User: Which sequence fits this backbone?
């Protein structure tokens, strides 16, 4: 479990993986899909995912150089992990909202 969490470490990392689960992307496509990330953070997350053995960086010759990022099979296996995290969070959020609304409408004794 620690290895998985280390691969997904850092704010925004899961969103970068989510975008790459949809298919390989160029840096500019990732920037457009994730406008709230600074260039530095996006570059750091892509480098981190590459070091974790989750993402490949394919640089094509030419000018300007074309670079595509893609998940390797190991990275694609994070899809169900992220889905489970999403499901758990959505369930917990719904439960918390229900509990909050229950407190507001319940009589005070």
Assistant:
């Amino acid at each position: 479990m620690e290895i998985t969490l280390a691969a997904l470490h850092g704010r925004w990392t899961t969103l970068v993986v989510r975008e790459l689960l949809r298919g390989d992307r160029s840096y500019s496509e990732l920037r457009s899909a994730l406008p709230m990330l600074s260039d530095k953070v996006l570059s750091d997350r892509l480098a981190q995912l590459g070091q974790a053995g989750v993402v490949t960086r394919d640089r094509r010759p030419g000018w300007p150089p074309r670079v595509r990022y893609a998940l390797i099979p190991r990275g694609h296996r994070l899809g169900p992990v992220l889905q489970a995290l999403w499901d758990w969070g959505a369930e917990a959020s719904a439960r918390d909202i229900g509990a909050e609304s229950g407190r507001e409408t319940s009589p005070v004794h």
